[in-house]
Amino acid sequence: MRMYDVIEKKRDGEELSKEEIRFFINGYTNGDIPDYQVSALMMAVYFQDMTEAERAELTTAMVESGDQIDLSAISGIKVDKHSTGGVGDTTTLILAPLVASVGVPVAKMSGRGLGHTGGTIDKLESVPGFHVGISSDEFVDLVNTNKAAVVGQTGNLTPADKKLYSLRDVTATVNSIPLIASSIMSKKIASGADAIVLDVKTGAGAFMKQYDEAKELAEAMVSIGNRVGRNTMAVISDMSQPLGKAIGNALEVKEAIDTLKGNGPEDLTELCLTLGSQMVLLANKADSLDEARTLLSNNLNNGKAFNQFKLFLESQGGDSSVADNPESLPQAAYKIDLKAKYSGTVSEMVADDIGTAAMMLGAGRATKESKIDLAVGIVLHKKIGDTVTEGNPLLTIYSNQENVEDVKEKLHASITVSEDTVERPQLIYDTVTK
Ligand code: URA
Ligand code: CA
C-alpha cells in the first residue's frame, strides 16, 4: 500500500477502507509516513469529510495506537462523562460523588491540562492531603469499595491522536468534524468506560460557538461511540456565559460542596441533574430518566451525595473536614468587587473573556510549566437576565495581588448591561442518542 494512493483516494472524495485507515495511522505513529503526506490527507479529509464507518475506523485505529485502560476488574457498568470544555465547569467534581451515591461506579482518569482554571485534579488538590498518586490496583479497589476514585493520567494513551493533533494545529485542519470527533472519542474509549455521556457546549465560551456545529459534533461522537460498542449519548448545553458562579480552583471546590448540599447555583445544579440522570440510566441503576433524576435530587437534599464526597476525599488522603469548613481551603489575600457602571439588565457575559480574566489572576495555566494559584478566581453575583443597579457588584475578584486594574478592564469589556429586558439563555438545548 502507498500513502500517495490513500491521499489521492480521499482527495477524490472516495471512502477509505479499514486497511487504508490502519495503514496511515500505524505508519504515522511509528514514523514511517512523513508529516507532509499526513498533512495532505488531513486537508483532503477537511474538504471531503468522512463517512460514519470511516470515522469509527479512524477512532479505533487511534485507540489501538497505544495503551488502553482495562477497567474490567471493577464491577458494574462504568460510565464516564466528557465535556468539550467551558468556563467555570465544576460538573465533574459534583457528578463523581453524586452518581456514585446511587451506586454508579466512577473510575475517573483526569489530567491537569491547560485552560482558564486547573483541571479536576488541580481543583481536588486544593483539599489538604488529597492525592492521585495511587497504583492501578488501589484505584480498582477504591472504586469497588467506595464507588468513586480519581487517578492521574498514566500510560501512553492514543499516541496517534497526540501526533495528529499537533500536526492539525499547524496545518489549519483542527476545525473538521470527523477529525475532532475521532480525536475526542479515541481518548474516551482508550480510558476504558463501558458507556459515555458527552456534554457538548455551545456559545461564546465553547469550542463550537454555533449551535448547528455543536449538534453536528454531538451526532458524530454519538455515532462513533455506538459503532465501537460503547453506549454513548450527548447533551448540548449552553456556554454563552460561565456555568455556575465560581471560576477558579478552590472557589469551584466550594461551589461543588454547596451544590452537593443542595445549595448550588440553579444552572449548575440543573446541568448536573441532567447529565447525572443520563449516566444513571446508562449504568442501569434506574428504569427511566425521571426515576434517575429523582434518585439524584433526593441525594442532594438528604446528605448522601455530600457524605459520598467526604468519603471520596478521605479515601484518597484528603482532609474531609474541609467539606464542613470550606474556609479552610486556600484563600486569596484580596477580595475586590467589580461594580456596575450602569443600571439595567445583564445582556452579555462573554464566557471566554471571563475565563481569560481568571487566568490573568493566576487560576489557569498558559503553558504546561506554569504554576497555578489555587486560591484566586472570580465569583459572579449576576448572570445574563439579572437586573443590576449602578455601583452594585457584578462580581467579586479573588486575588493575591492588590492591583487588578487590567483584570477589571478585561471584565468590564466582557460584560454588557442593557436598558432592554433580556431573557435568561436556555441551559439545555438538545439531547442526541443513537
Ligand atoms: N479537542 C480534542 O481533543 N481534539 C480535537 O481535535 C479538538 C478538540
Ligand atoms: Ca462554576
Account of the protein in words:
The chain is α/β, with parallel strands linked by helices and 434 residues long. 45% of the residues lie in helices and 15% in strands. The protein has 17 helices and 13 strands. The strands form four sheets. It has a four-stranded mixed beta sheet, sandwiched between helices. A four-stranded antiparallel beta sheet has the order 6-9-11-7, sandwiched between helices. Strand 4 (195-202), helix 10 and strand 5 (231-238) form a beta-alpha-beta unit. Helix 1 packs parallel to helix 3 (35-48). The chain binds uracil (URA) and calcium ion. Uracil (URA) binds at residues 165, 174, 179-180, 183-184.
Question: Would you kindly provide a brief summary of this structure?
Answer:
This protein has 17 helices and 13 strands. With 434 residues, the protein is an alpha/beta fold. Helix 5 packs across helix 12, helix 12 crosses helix 13 and helix 16 runs antiparallel to helix 17.
